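hey team, just a heads up i'm posting the complex here instead of the shared drive bc the drive is being weird again. everything in one block, sequence lines first with there labels, then the predicted structure for the whole assembly after. its two chains so it's a bit long, scroll down
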Amino acid sequence: MTSTDTAQSAPPANGNRAAAANLSLRRVGIDTWRENVVYLNRDCEAYRAEGFQALAKVEIRANGKRILATLNVVDDASIVACHELGLSEDAFAQLGVPDGYLVAIAQAEPPESMAALFRKIDGERLNREEYHAIVRDIAGRRYSKIELTAFVVACNRGELDREEVFFLTDAMVASGRRLDWHEPLVVDKHCIGGIPGNRTSMLVVPIVAAHGLLCPKTSSRAITSPAGTADTMEVLAQVELPFDKLAEIVRENRGCLAWGGTADLSPADDVLISVERPLSIDSPGQMVASILSKKIAAGSTHLVLDMPIGPTAKVRSMPEAQRLRRLFEYVAHRMHLSLDVVITDGRQPIGNGIGPVLEARDVMRVLENDPRAPNDLRQKALRLAGRLIESDPDVRGGDGFGIARDILDSGRALARMNAIITAQGSNGFDHNHAKLGAITFDVLATRAGVVAGIDNFQIARIARLAGAPKVQGAGVELFRKLGETVAAGDPLYRVYAEFPADQAFAQQAATKATGYTIGSADDVPHVFVEF
Amino acid sequence: MTSTDTAQSAPPANGNRAAAANLSLRRVGIDTWRENVVYLNRDCEAYRAEGFQALAKVEIRANGKRILATLNVVDDASIVACHELGLSEDAFAQLGVPDGYLVAIAQAEPPESMAALFRKIDGERLNREEYHAIVRDIAGRRYSKIELTAFVVACNRGELDREEVFFLTDAMVASGRRLDWHEPLVVDKHCIGGIPGNRTSMLVVPIVAAHGLLCPKTSSRAITSPAGTADTMEVLAQVELPFDKLAEIVRENRGCLAWGGTADLSPADDVLISVERPLSIDSPGQMVASILSKKIAAGSTHLVLDMPIGPTAKVRSMPEAQRLRRLFEYVAHRMHLSLDVVITDGRQPIGNGIGPVLEARDVMRVLENDPRAPNDLRQKALRLAGRLIESDPDVRGGDGFGIARDILDSGRALARMNAIITAQGSNGFDHNHAKLGAITFDVLATRAGVVAGIDNFQIARIARLAGAPKVQGAGVELFRKLGETVAAGDPLYRVYAEFPADQAFAQQAATKATGYTIGSADDVPHVFVEF
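-- predicted structure starts here --
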């Protein structure tokens, strides 16, 4: 029998060394993007005494508050002097005390979830508590970029089983605000992305709000695409509104179309995206957790999820779409969210315009029942709106489309949109006098035939090079869609730019590859989807 | 039949926008530790025009040279003004032009190996060219911390088969300098680590050098342990020597014991370690690649690798050790390195002292054949030296130990060590008057019995808290080893510290857990090892 020997040492020394608050806080005007960084001068007594490793995780304490930060050593006393402790913008904001405040620094205890992180790196399955611990630490900015990346990569490649995805989603909802609209039915629509011009939300919201359903839609700005819903809506109205104002607008109009950044929902999601994006990581588990956690945090009870498939969409095949759909449905079920996944046609962009003004023009034309409105955008929006309307217990299954169409044809959707625009703050857009980029060039067909392929990625890329979404009037206007016949020399699309440099880059890309494939009618790919 | 339509556009615009060299370079005194960071002011024209993402990878060009760097946006014009471009220390050094030079910035083309990195993140097997491309980009500082971490985690968990480990090792050797000593036999010894006090190198080198073998040993400083070979040697002599001086010392004395940092061998290894360490990642593949690439780059032809096993060693069991040995042997074979892996007793620290001065004292006592010299250190060093001596074609298998013992007993090893110490620059150490930390406390046995377990981790931790290796005279001196009988109240070990705070932290840890387990003779674990 063994006993682990506990110490009976010589008399103890004079007390513990408490971390002395002896460094003057200095805000360092560097944006390190969602990672807390602390700057210490190499000759600083605290740095030398503690023997911090480069990139060590340290703990900064002030006024009863603690934050973790990664250490960068500074050799320039004008940035941080020997008696000072510098914090990057995010870290300074998180600590919440002013410049000059005396703060303490100490070796950091590793975040609580470190052991769980290491287990996941080793390929182990984690339990509910471990996901909650990890996400709490991520949302609390206690993970360095290195630890974040390790977590994201370890979760990649189908390493999460469906229950783990549920744990992760649940943890992400728990990590931030969760809105409660105090109504039994709060509907929302989301698309997994990847299809340019797919601005159905801006039609679905006024339609279902006019029907009477609560649809408080918050959206993001584009990160890699030529326009996000928030960018396109911003052509019509203000989108960055304080949360109280949004809540008021929703109460009065049953809907809104705003930027989601002010509500701070799912903060862990934003931090995770900052490392997923550079690595182009978009694994099913993380996609499900990201999308569902944001929608649940926003207070949705019923969600319609648009999942386009096609050769240049995010999801390439029906079997892949079915797997992803089942994962979404499982997690939504565990989270008590009513979810309807609709697999749609992702073979080409939706609508004619790609870029904020061009897309806003398409949307307003549909709402006004203008003959120039793109019919594919109209039809898709009606079908999605119809599905959402069918979450109303008073509506029979199958009737949704007709109700949505009536709302649109009658002008009630337009009226509701105008009310929302006015409430958010109109930007005075007139689709008949849309301000488009002054420098244009057309891309022409080099041979006769049938449009057999349109590369979503390439078209989106060209639109971005042309300046979208930063330049609102920049983008691409498609003249021909899949299956249409063209003659040699027919214009396929027009590129709008504001600056010669943007136009040159876009032209360069379009010359390398237009994104269009001309062939015969047999070459047009088929997808068997709902719509 | 389809043809992808190439553009026939309207007349091209006025030329391309070449990246104009229009920003004044400014060295920013921030050490971002092996990651290139570029600092741009948020109001800077180039930043706004390019629409860089936060943390974007950008390319900086000057004087025909290009580097990649991660973007941090700055809000403080005193750090970087609007017409300036700031670079962190490493990046500034890599670009190699002075302050004030006009440089250009552009979106970075992703590093050549990005596609291979993404494939590895997806769990694919990579080929030889892909490993070379990745390691070239790592050594060239073209990977951000995020990409580095993704690579390391994706390679973790036995994801690399043995041939991939060879590819990685080969690529790491190709990425840096490779020394050539112009002799057919260049011997070296390495330990995989994890055992405090295991300073056999400082005995093996003088012994085999006295025999006549070339043994140019470079070592690292401790990162997480209480002393690295370089730290302990530094008690005796200077270790940070310019490479030319080292080469001269080796030529004259057949050996040296220096710090490896000046030679810039295997640069990719140092970069990888900067992310592996915070994540405690030490997978077999990466361990083999790291150790063998460094030894091969250092010009070794024959290597003896010490692999201790035990309940608190890095490798816990014989089957695990055998797997690791086979991996080392396979890669060494492919790299044409003669390798002898020796599985040794890792149940407890080697020698009596842990910490630079205490270990240096042990080493000098062994060399002087002092009766107080720890016998386990002496025996282990002789066996390892014997193995190395047997790489000499004139020595028969089995004779090595005897030759080594004669060299030691006769004082020739001591003479050679003193010559090396003088050549590197003596620090005047006298083991009879070793300067140890003035503040001590003893840890006593609380019950009678047999020492049945010594926790390597805990003892190392206590020695570090006491101040080792930064405080040379700090550390732990063991009085009792495994299998020895103790009475209640007998001192097990003594802790030396220089500063009260260090002593307090060490005492706190020792009180929580001494690291010693007292039981009966049956409780002592057995390992069946070579020695």
